[in-house]
Specification:
Layout (H helix, E strand, L loop, with lengths): L3 E10 L2 E10 L2 E15 L6 E9 L4 E7 L4 E4 L3
Antiparallel strand pairs: 1-2, 1-6, 2-3, 3-4, 4-5, 5-6
């Protein structure tokens, strides 16, 4: 399955979109009530960077989302 591009409302610090606060999934706004973990993944060959987050939404579900710095967009991981 491929990852799904999503719109994210994020806190923007000096690096741009640093921490997600909410996101839109299938026309529903999901507020992030807790960031459960976060990590950075870097590609060995091309040095691309993804800032990944495991979050809990206000609907009780957990999600894995990431910001892909190369394209400047957010994605929902489908696994």
């Amino acid at each position: 399955m491929t990852d799904e591009r999503i719109n994210v409302i994020a806190y923007s610090g000096y690096r741009g979109d640093e921490k997600p606060k909410a996101f839109i999934l299938h026309n529903e706004k999901i507020e992030i009530v807790q960031i459960l973990s976060m990590w950075i993944e870097e590609g060995l060959k091309d040095g691309t960077r993804k800032r990944s987050f495991k979050v809990k939404g206000n609907n009780g579900y957990e999600y894995k989302i990431y910001y892909y710095e190369k394209v400047g967009e957010w994605f929902l991981t489908r696994d």
